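User: Teach me something about this protein's shape.
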Amino acid sequence: MITKHKELTLFEYGEIISAWKSEISKRKIGNILNFPQSIVHDVIKAYRNFDQEIPSPRIGKLSILTKRNNHYLLKLHHYFLKTIQLYYF
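Assistant: First, the predicted structure itself:
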């Protein structure tokens, strides 16, 4: 079974926090907004402990290549393109 994961939008994040500030229970917030109770809990916990009104940014995968390596590969690519053009055309 493939599950679909999606990030909460800033609006959805704000809805959860504002509903919690209005003293609505986590279970009711989850039912009203159609979110699992665990997500509602995590959003409220992040807000309560770290004052995060927006979700923390995702870092993503770090690049293996350094700037220098990337620059060298581009130079090499352009060199091979010129060589191929001279040879075939």
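Now, about its shape. Residues 10-88 form one domain. The CA atoms of residues 71 and 77 lie 10 Å apart. If you'd like, I can walk through any region in more detail.
User: That's plenty for now, thanks!
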